[in-house]
Amino acid sequence: MNKPTIEIEYCPKCGWLLRAAWMAQELLTTFTDDLYAVQLRPSEVAGRYTIMLNSELIWDRKREGHFPEPKEIKQKVRDIIAPDRSLGHNDR
Whole-model pTM? Predict the structure, then answer.
């Protein structure tokens, strides 16, 4: 089975690289053995911050109305790639 790839597209003009890198770190730390990669991609569209899992959109800042907390994204990723896995305190 191929391990999934997560892509975080962020607006560099808005200064969201650090936010995207922090989210990548959180995901790589939590899903060390479960992910192939977390890719950061600067967007050509102003204001964009999206997270894709194997080309499936799991978060869009504009659609949701806010930036995701790591807990929210970890739960979404877990529900797709390892639904039986516990995330410990992130499940509360």
Answer: 0.91
